[in-house]
Amino acid sequence: MNYNELFNMCGLNDEWQAQNKERIEKFLHKIYIRSDKDIEDSVAWAKSQFDFTLQGTRQIMAVIMKESIDYSLADEECEIIINYTRPAMASLSQGFHVWEKRINEELGYKKYYARGTSIVYLMIALGTIFNKANWCIELAEDMGQTAGKGHCSEYQIWEGGLSKGMFPPPTVEVSCGLFCDQAPEVEAMMAEEFSYDIVFTDLPEDHPWDTWPNMDLEAIKYLSANTELVYDHLREKYGFTMSEEDKSQGVMEANKFTNRHFGIAELIATTDGLPVSRADLFLSFITSAIGTYYTEELLEAMKQLEKDVRKRKREGIFVVPPGSPRVYGTFVAVSDMRFYHQCEEAGLHLTHVWFEPVPPEVFNTPPASDIPREQGYEMIFRFQGLGDLCGSSLKQAKYAVEHYKLDGLMIFETMFCRPLCLPAAMIKDYVQKECDNIPVMRLELDAYDSRNYTPEQYRTRLESFAEVLRMRRVMNE
Ligand code: SF4
């Protein structure tokens, strides 16, 4: 199979391909890319998703592809697979990557695969490069995880992929209940189905209503204590002995990813016009949120993407022209970027996506705990937009609208993800009341499952919304 063009597009050059020939071929076989036609289809699909003329896009995609290959071959290449699954954040999981690197170097061979990135990166590659995400979802439905059972498409992909051997079953899964109950529920079922060990971190997102930015110290301590219990289990059973230095370095690296992405996000939010598609910006968003084993490469890649944005801005190249309506859209697509392109075709400048508007209180509020580890957990809770049982995402939306002088708000109900649906109706009422009845649109969409996505269905609504925002701007002038 001639996959040279595809991997070059994804930032992996001829030399890397030659060195990794056997691994690439095994990987492609595992994910059911088995003919030249499959490769041609993937190239065409990937080009409809991202702008591969951007050097930054290619470099970030290289990290994602390397992570995907590592993960898919982990059962052949490593003895013990420790997965920290979604929705873990980089500040929790980056220590795993630090530890994996250090311990394998000390041992002199790849004994452990220990990452918190695996499932998501492979989902991104399967969805946006190989167009296989929806197939995995269908496989999971055939196995009984039907839509409407309250389990999300993210975990349908995981189950479908496991059933076909695309993903290796882990030795042990650290299941993260950071802000949803669905992931641990499905994980408990799959641990039995695919015979792997599982251990749960239970992270309560139920802070008292309207107390943000002050978070509940009891909840923070609980999270911290039960995460330490998980580490105890990993140490006793699998020799996973992450040191305090590993954890601190992980947090430091996670902070660097976050800072770099927020630098790009601020640039986008304060530019009149959108120089680079939200699809390409998603790559920076997601990698900063979940981290990677390839730390330096990712930091370089993000820096390059920022340069790409600045260059386009300087040269006056925009995917949404200056003067267009500016909108905060609370949606993050993961497996299919077409919706972003459609927003851009309708002339909507998405200044932010979910999680990106960061009110000053997030960093300015003094920590309630004096223990550094707990301060890290506290910060995770203080960022808005998680499960939001404390009203934080309402404040975040108000801040975005007022601070960035936005014309509208698009709230997405990601259909089978309870936590992301939760605040949708409340945000609309709150922001309209607080922000001069600003136009708000609510849309149902799913971050992973695009089977029900029909461009026509959304085009009319997006164009009408953009028109309303333009008219309102004119009237206000
Ligand atoms: S329910 Fe939502 S937050 Fe939880 S794993 Fe699924 S998509 Fe992620």
From TrEMBL:
InterPro entries: FldB/FldC_alpha/beta
Protein keywords: Iron, Iron-sulfur, Metal-binding
The keyword Nucleotide-binding is assigned to this record: no
Cofactor: [4Fe-4S] cluster
Family: Belongs to the FldB/FldC dehydratase alpha/beta subunit family.
Protein's name in the database: 2-hydroxyacyl-CoA dehydratase family protein
Species, as recorded: Acetobacterium wieringae
